Structure formats: C-alpha cells, structure tokens
Amino acid sequence: MKAVVVHELGGPEVLSYEDTADPVPEADEALVRIEAAGVNFLDIYYRQGFHWGGHRPRSLPYTPGAEGAGRVVGVGEAVTEVAVGDLVAFGVSNGYGAYAEMIAIKSRHLVKLPNGVNASVAAAVMQQGMTAHYLSHSTYPLKPTDVALVHAAAGGTGRLLVQMAKLRGARVIGVVSTWAKAEIASSAGADNVIVSSEQDFEKEARRLTQGRGVNVVYDSVGKTTFEQSLNSLIPLGMMVLYGQSSGAVPAFDTAALNAKGSLFLARPSLTHYVANRGDLEARTSDIFCWISEKKLDVRIERTFPFREAPKSHDLLASRQAMGKVMLVP
Predict the structure, then answer these.
(1) Beta strand residue intervals within the chain, DSSP E
(2) What angle do CA 322, 118, 85 make, to 5 degrees?
C-alpha cells in the first residue's frame, strides 16, 4: 500500500510518500481501508520530536496520523465492536498510522458512523470534536451564566468549541488573528470576536465583561497568550491550556495563580477523557447527533492527497487555516 512515512525527525520535508507493507491485524484489531485522515498539531509535534506527559516519542520510521475514517475490510478473531463492511472512525491522541491507505487498529478505538455522517466529516471531528466536547462538557462544564474566552476561535477545534459552548448556553468571546477569521468565528456563534493582531485581547475581554473578566479561557496557543489569558479571568476562574501552537509555556511560579484570584489551571489531554469505551461512545454519539441534526457545522478548509502531506503541515503550522485540514488517499 501507499503511506506517508517519517524516517527522521524534522520539518515537513521528512514526510515521505512511499510503498509500505500492508498491515495485518492482530486478534484485537480491525483492518480499515482509510477514506480520509485528519491533520492535527499533534502530528506536527511528533514529527518535530516533541512529546510530553503520556505522549511517547515515535519510534522511527513511523506513519503519522491520529484520526481517520474508512471501511472495515478485516477483523481479528477477538474483535466484537465492529464487523467487515462497517463504516468507522477513530481518533487516538497518542496514536499514529492514519496517513496510509490502510491501518490495523485496536477495535476498541473504532466507532460506527450513523447515517448522515460521511467518512470525511467523521475524520474531521474525531480529534478536534472530542476535544471540544470534553473541554466544554467535562474540564470546565459550561453553564448559561458563564462567559468563555476561546482562542483560535476560527480554527478546527476552536470553531467546534464555540458551537458547543453555545449549545450549552454560555456567552462566547472568540479571539482570532484576522478580520477574515472574525467572520468565521461569528458565523459559528461567537457573541463577540477580538482580532488579536489589532486589539489587546486582555483589555477587550475586560471591557466586554464590564471589567469582571471571564469564567474560563480555552487556550490552544500557549506561550504568546498564556499570561494575558490568566489576566482575563475572574477570581476562581479556570485557565484551560490544551495546546501550544506558539510554543511551550515557560516555567512559572504557581503562586501567581493565588495572586491573580485563586485561579485554576488545567492541562488536559483527550487520552484521559476517552479512557474507556463508554466515554468514547458518549462523546461521539453527541457529536454525530449534532451533525445529523445540523446543530454542529464542520468546516473543512482544504483536502490534500497523501503525497502532498508536507503542504498540509505547512498550512496548519501557518495558522492560516480557517477550519479542518484533511488528507485523502
């Protein structure tokens, strides 16, 4: 089969499109013919050699890709969750292998797609959709009385998070880098949008809340926004740092959380929010239901063939994408 393979760590140019051996499923695995794969910052971090917490560095060579969707074409003898012919999707935050024509994957990670949700849309929401779900429903369960500040509100995760926050009744202030992205965030339901290239988001967040601040900040940017994000919170507010597209946050004195209002700091990972089959099914059931009922709109920015995987990483890393970046065979 054809696959994208990383033989050495580095820039997008290390993504090599080549022939590889067809995978053979083990007893608890299913063989899935990939129809679409999502591109995530996690793929970039691993390609660069960065890892943290429970995310182990990849053993070289490896095929990137933590999420995808396609048709089951084979199953191991112990598989009970899916059968040959099922259209399925998966998203494993510390996983890999989706940038390929086929993948052998533990069947416990697979969910069947309902009518009305195709492989491309499903692959686009497995990582980012479940991330937006746990952020808004579990890490900080939003209430109608809450005001949430969402960074990168026009991006793949951010746009889904804005919509889910509105489904929970919260007020949403989106932060984006350009006026074009402001239109995307507004169309997703953001009540207010701050353009960080021209406005100080900390001051604007305070102004928009009559000086009080916001209840929660969902920050996927990291280094360049961390301090101001903390400053945007009300006392007892929560800072949810779930990514670092601008770089890792430097070490800091945790006493600052006390001084700024007894703040909470969360650094969550999808891995721990889909640790069992029940969590996985509950989150994907909500997401697929909202998509089918037109309550959740999935925006696919651009789709590249596998052979152009380097271009997909370049686009995502540029932070110019206003929606999901995808790869297809």
Answers:
(1) 2-6, 15-19, 29-38, 67-75, 87-91, 102-106, 111-112, 147-151, 171-176, 192-195, 214-219, 233-241, 264-266, 300-305, 324-328
(2) 145
Residue 177: DSSP 8-state: S
Domains of the chain: 2-126+274-328 (3.90.180.10), 143-267 (3.40.50.720)
Residue of 197, 213, 241 lying closest to 252 (CA atoms): 241
pLDDT band for 53, please (50, 70, 90 cuts): low
Rg (CA), the chain: 20
pLDDT tens, residue by residue, 213-255: 999 999 999 899 999 999 999 999 999 999 887 888 999 999 9
Q: How many C-beta atoms lie closer than 10 Å to residue 169's C-beta?
A: 11
Backbone angles phi, psi at 79, to 5 degrees: -80, 130
- Rounded Cα–Cα distance for residues 278 and 16 (Å): 37
- SS3 for 190-211, per residue? CCEEEECCCCCHHHHHHHHCCC
Report the candidate in 130, 161, 165, 160 with the shortest Cα–Cα distance to residue 144: 165
